Amino acid sequence: MNTSHLKQAIITLNKGGVIAYPTEAVFGLGCMPNFQDSVYRILQLKHRAVEKGLILVASSIEQLEDYVHFDNLPTIDQIRDSWPGSVTWLIPAKKKTPTWLTGSHSTLAVRVSSHPTVNALCRELGPIVSTSANPAGFKPAITTQEVLSYFGEELDYVIPTEIKNNLNPTEIRDAQNGNIIRVS
Fold first, then answer.
1. How far apart are CA 47 and CA 132, in angstroms?
2. How many beta carbons lie within 10 A of that of residue 101, not counting itself?
3. Which residue range(s) make up the domain with 133?
4. Bigger pLDDT: 167 or 184?
5. CATH number of the domain bearing residue 165
């Protein structure tokens, strides 16, 4: 990855901006999780209800400890074995976790990503919001051109690239029982 694109994305996120970036399967829209206005901008761009909640991606499990409870999870070994990777887990949220992240849920969707760009961003910034780069009802973007056709100048920065794996969005599992909520 081009380091100038990474640096610009980091600067943009630190200023409260909204970016599009590559993930394991599709382009993601992201921002810093504690910038409420930025999170609501993403929800508005996607035409997504806040009640649905969002995903946080990180470069390590430790980065997620401020947001979720890993204690006493029956699936903790399964979670650790799946990360870094493309499995997102619904884990009980801490009381201080903002509702603009959890939505109407008592859990938060989290993933330690295996994607090098996501890892580089999160190593520098900590966890970031991740949701597929598409308006509700549209196919997730897998090219820079698709991101721009959906959102144009409404984004503060787009890391230009193409998704190589072209997979479906990541699998989502319930951390209380290991059940699959969404198949990849």
1. 12
2. 23
3. 3-182
4. 167
5. 3.90.870.10
